[in-house]
Amino acid sequence: MSASARPPEGGAPSLGEGVARRRDGSPVSARPAPPARQVRVPRVRLAAAVGASVGISLLNDPGLLLAAGGLGLALLLAAILSSGNMSRLLRRLLVVNVFVLMLWLTLPWELGANGLAASDEGRRLALLISLRTNAIALCCIGLLAGMDAFAVARAASGLGLPPKMARLLALMVRYFGLLDDSRRRIERAMRARGFRPGFNLRTLQVLAQLVALLLVHAMLRAERVGMAMRARGFAPHTPPASPANRRRPAAAPAPALGASLLLLGIVLGSAWLGIG
Amino acid sequence: MHLADGVLSAPVLLTSTALSVAGVAFGLRRLREEQLPLAALLGAAFFVASTIHVPVGVGSVHLILNGLAGLLLGWAVFPVLCVALALQAALFSFGGFAVLGANLLIMALPGVAAHHMLRGRLGPGVAHLQALISGAACGVIGIGGAALLAGALLALSGGRVFSELIVLFGLAHLPVLVVDAAIGAFTVATLVRMMPQALASVRS
């Protein structure tokens, strides 16, 4: 849902919670390679969540949907028991039900020639969709609870994304945190200069400056990232170096190779002449 | 602008997913390897910008900026928004996985339209008024197009039963459209002043 009555501060899902940082705050490169189970389990959880979403979307029988909802509820309860983070998980369920609320406000009613009339068909459809939406949400929230953006990105890459898409995903997840920090820093500076958001033109102008600054930060950073990637072997138009071709010695340019061979020949020749 | 999982019918889900997969594949093919960091960083910036809340009356709306993202990214807006929507579904339960293709189509197609309709009007050295108009047009095309597409997918799924929902959905997005158009206008005008070369890529 886009329009909402959430407050400007604090109501938005914090990127820091799910996206920006690992829970223990350790840098990515400082971690040893995770054991195979830690790699496989998030993949299975993500695949199960996607599979459950698609499978339940195709169900039309209320009994089956109730069963799926029961399974989802069990998954969510298990997630709450293991993570102990009940309020955040339940808040996500609430987000889903904003749309369901819109359904119930509109579907059971029909605007006809005689004014507003109740529609049985609409009520049945609203009930079916509510069951389906909540069953899917329960399953997904239960299965994915506790996974941060890095875990989701790794799991998705492991499930066979095309390599370019996987690189895009990895880069985006890597830089959410950085740009979110930029946003917080700029907002702090704005507040320090006395800016208070309100329902007026000035707020729109200042927030647009914030967006423009974020985009400029992103563009400047992209140049540096591009250079750093090239320095690490991500050459444009060629796939990134795999372990197999990284071990291969770098191909020397032909003139340098020719000059080296000529020099070697001269040295060997003069040495042979000297011995002779 | 997210449709929840479980609302659309199976044929609509399948068709919109197929179209979105084609859009993502085309966007990835057009995206050159050296453009990958820029696309990713812009995608991350738009993701962060979408968490900004703008006060409207007693409540607030959050930015979407799909038109502006489309203007700057072109067809690459498909893979970039695909990543953003998938993460929103996984981390915050906005939208969902089965409806990801439909939501992507709703958000990215107006972005591509904004790119093709507005790129001729922008570039380094563009007049201030022209920048304001183009930025506002990004918001109108982005959110207006998305609301129309969402309405069309709902109508194809449920026919007449959904008509009141479509109207309510459209009305709920009117403030979003106004805010996105205003923010888009000022953002493009600021970008033109702050970093004129930022809009050079729009023409390519």
Jot down its keywords.
heterodimer, A: 276 residues, mainly alpha, 10 helices, 3 strands, disordered N terminus, B: 204 residues, Arp2/3 complex 21 kDa subunit ARPC3, 9 helices, 71% helix, 4% strand, globular
Can you tell me about this structure?
The complex is a heterodimer of chains A (276) and B (204). Chain A has 276 residues and is mostly helical. Chain A folds into 2 domains: 13-25 and 35-160, no CATH class; 163-237, no CATH class. Chain A is built from 10 helices and 3 strands, in the order βααααββαααααα. In chain A, α2 (36-57) runs antiparallel to α5 (120-144), α2 (36-57) packs across α6 (149-158) and α3 runs parallel beside α5. The longest helix of chain A has 31 residues, at 201-231. Chain B has a two-stranded antiparallel sheet with strand order 1-2. Chain B has helices spanning 10-30, 36-49, 66-73, 77-92, 100-118, 128-158, 163-172, 174-194, 200-203; strands at 53-56, 59-62. The mean pLDDT of chain B is 91. The two termini of chain B are 29 Å apart. In chain B, α3 (66-73) crosses α5. Chain B has one domain (10-203): Arp2/3 complex 21 kDa subunit ARPC3 (Orthogonal Bundle), CATH 1.10.1760. Chain B is mainly alpha-helical and 204 residues long.
